[in-house]
């Protein structure tokens, strides 16, 4: 059974940084990604990384966020720098099973950026 654990959210001032961590258990995983959902808005893809390490970023975070991956530990990190109030959202980790192709989600971690 696939299990996804997220950590690292919190409150930070604008211009600060945070690192989110996501660990997945119970399968071999293909693409792993971070999404976010702000109040009243749709969930959007923030950053994704393939098993071979190829990253993909939302335009709004390019140059500020960095996603990395450890395949041995099935873990991804999202380093977020130069944070802005508009980055405030619940951040969700998504992992895709390489066996089934199904997506599995974490419960989300709150990131709040104060101005």
Which key terms come to mind for this protein?
4-stranded antiparallel sheet; single chain; globular; 11 strands
Describe it.
- This protein has 115 residues and is an all-beta fold.
- It is built from no helices and eleven strands.
- The chain has strands at residues 3-7, 10-13, 18-25, 29-37, 44-49, 55-57, 65-70, 75-80, 89-97, 103-105, 109-114.
- Strands 2, 4, 5, 6, 9, 10 and 11 form a seven-stranded mixed β-sheet that branches. Strands 1-3-8-7 form a four-stranded antiparallel β-sheet, with no helix packed on it.
- It is globular and about 45 Å long.
- The relative contact order is 0.32.
- The mean pLDDT is 97.
Topology:
Blueprint lengths: L2 E5 L2 E4 L4 E8 L3 E9 L6 E6 L5 E3 L7 E6 L4 E6 L8 E9 L5 E3 L3 E6 L1
Parallel strand pairs: 2-11
Antiparallel strand pairs: 1-3, 3-8, 4-5, 4-9, 5-6, 7-8, 9-10, 9-11
């Amino acid at each position: 059974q696939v299990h996804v654990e997220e950590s690292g959210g919190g409150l930070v001032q604008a211009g600060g940084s945070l690192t989110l961590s996501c660990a997945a258990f119970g399968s071999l995983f293909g693409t792993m990604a971070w999404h976010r959902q702000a109040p009243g808005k749709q969930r959007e893809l923030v950053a994704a990384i393939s098993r071979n390490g190829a990253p993909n970023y939302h335009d709004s975070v390019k140059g500020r966020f960095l996603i990395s991956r450890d395949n041995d530990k099935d873990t991804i990190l999202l380093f977020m720098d130069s944070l802005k109030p508009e980055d405030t959202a619940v951040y969700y980790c998504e992992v895709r099973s390489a066996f089934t192709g199904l997506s599995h989600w974490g419960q989300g971690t709150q990131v709040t950026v104060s101005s």
